[in-house]
Design a protein that fits this description.
This protein has 340 residues and is α/β, with parallel strands linked by helices. The protein has 11 helices and 13 strands. It has helices at 10-19, 34-42, 60-69, 85-93, 106-115, 147-172, 188-199, 229-235, 244-270, 288-295, 326-339, and strands at 2-6, 27-31, 48-51, 75-80, 98-101, 176-177, 182-186, 204-213, 216-225, 275-276, 280-286, 302-311, 317-325. Helix 6 (147-172) packs across helix 9. The chain is globular.
C-alpha cells in the first residue's frame, strides 16, 4: 500500500511517520502542501492519505474538494490541529474516512487503522518505514534558531492555535478561520514593524498577559481590531447598547479564551505548565503606533509567534502574539531536542 503524509511541517511529518505501526507493510511518501499532495496522489502514491488542513498553496479542504471533483476514491484520514466541530463536519462531508487531532499518538493511530481494516498487528515487526526524501536526523544545534527549529515551533503553535480556535468556536457558535502561524526571532525594531503590519491602519484595543514556567517566560498580546466589536457583541448575544464597559468585557472574554487555551496547548506539548499573570489592558481604541510608543520598554529581542484569528462570515478579527524572552529560546530548544 502507498501511504502519503501531506503536511507543510516537516516535524509533523516525521512525528506521524514515527507513530505509524512498525509492522505495517507500506511504502511511505510525503508532500509539503496540498498541490504537491495532489501531484503525489495522481502519481499513485496515495492509496491512503494522512492530510493536514492548514497548509500553503492548497489547504486540506482543497485537496478533499479536488478528490471529490475528480471522482478519486483515495482513503483520507485528516490529522489536524484545527479541531473545531465544523472542521470535522466539513471534512467528513467532503469524503474523509476519519479525523484525528494533532499530535497523533501511536496507540490512537493503531486503533483507527485497525477499526478501518487498514492494518492488523503481526510479528516479528520489521524496521519502521522511512519517509522518502525526508531528513530524519535530529537538529544538531540546541541554541541557534535554525529553519528546522522554526518548523517545530510553527507546528507547536499550529496545535495550540487549533485548541484555542475550538474553544472560541464553541463559545460563539461560529467557524474560526485559521492561518499558518508566523514564527520569527525579532529585534525590537523588527517587532515594532511586525506589530504595525499586523494591525495595518485599524485602531485597536490591546490586552497583555505575562506567563512563566521552568525557564520559559514571556507575554501574550491580543490586538483586537475595533471594527470587530459590533459583530462580536451579536455573536455573544449581547442585548443593549455597546458602551465602553461592554466593549471592555468583550475584549477580556476573548483574550481569556484565546490566551488561556493557546498557552495550555503550547505548554502541554513542552510538558511545562505555565503560571499566568493577570491580564492588563494596554489601551482601547488606539493606533498601533500609540501602543508601541507607550509600551516599547516591554518588548526587546524576542521569539515571536503571530496568529491572526478571523470569524467566517463576520467582521471579527484579532491578532494573538506570543512574545518569548530571549533567554527562553535556549530552554525551549533543549526541550525540542528531546522531542526530536
Amino acid at each position: 500500500m502507498n501511504v502519503l503524509i501531506c503536511d507543510d511541517s516537516g516535524f509533523a511529518r516525521k512525528q506521524l511517520a514515527r507513530a505509524l505501526p512498525a509492522d505495517w507493510n507500506i511504502k511511505l511518501h510525503q508532500a509539503a502542501d496540498g498541490l504537491e499532495g495532489v501531484e503525489q496522489i495522481l502519481m499513485g502514491n496515495g492509496d491512503l492519505i494522512f492530510l493536514d488542513l492548514t497548509m500553503p498553496e492548497m489547504d486540506g479542504y482543497g485537496v478533499l474538494e479536488t478528490l471529490q471533483r475528480e471522482g478519486l476514491r483515495n482513503k483520507v484520514i485528516v490529522v489536524s490541529g484545527d479541531i473545531q466541530p465544523e472542521a470535522y463536519q466539513r471534512v467528513m462531508a467532503l469524503g474523509a474516512l476519519d479525523f484525528i487531532k494533532k499530535p497523533a499518538a501511536p496507540e490512537t493511530l493503531r486503533e483507527l487503522l485497525r477499526r478501518h481494516g487498514l492494518w492488523q498487528p503481526s510479528a516479528p515487526a520489521p524496521l519502521p518505514a522511512a519517509v522518502q526524501g525526508a531528513d530524519l536526523h535530529p537538529v544538531q544545534s540546541a541554541i541557534q534558531f535554525t529553519p528546522e527549529l522554526r518548523d517545530v515551533y510553527q507546528e507547536l503553535a499550529n496545535v495550540a492555535m487549533g485548541q484555542a480556535a475550538d474553544l472560541l468556536a464553541r463559545l460563539l457558535d461560529a467557524f474560526v478561520l485559521l492561518p499558518i502561524p508566523n514564527v520569527n526571532v525579532l529585534e525590537v525594531s523588527e517587532l515594532h514593524m511586525a506589530l504595525s503590519a499586523a494591525a495595518e491602519s485599524d485602531t485597536l484595543s490591546a490586552v497583555c498577559q505575562g506567563f512563566i514556567g521552568a525557564g520559559i517566560a514571556g507575554e501574550a498580546l491580543i490586538l483586537f481590531h475595533d471594527a470587530s466589536f459590533q459583530d462580536l457583541a451579536r455573536l455573544m448575544n449581547h442585548q443593549g447598547p455597546l458602551d465602553h464597559g461592554v466593549e471592555l468585557e468583550l475584549l477580556m472574554d476573548t483574550a481569556n479564551v484565546l490566551i488561556g487555551a493557546f498557552l495550555r496547548g503550547y505548554a502541554n506539548q513542552l510538558d511545562t505548565p505555565f503560571s499566568q499573570g493577570h491580564p492588563v489592558v494596554l489601551g482601547q481604541h488606539r493606533s498601533i503606533q500609540d501602543l508601541i510608543q507607550t509600551n516599547q520598554s516591554r518588548w526587546r529581542r524576542t521569539l515571536a509567534i503571530e496568529i491572526n484569528y478571523r470569524i467566517q462570515g463576520h467582521a471579527v478579527q484579532c491578532d494573538l502574539l506570543l512574545l518569548f524572552t530571549e533567554d527562553s529560546i535556549a530552554t525551549m530548544n533543549h526541550k525540542i531536542m528531546h522531542m526530536l
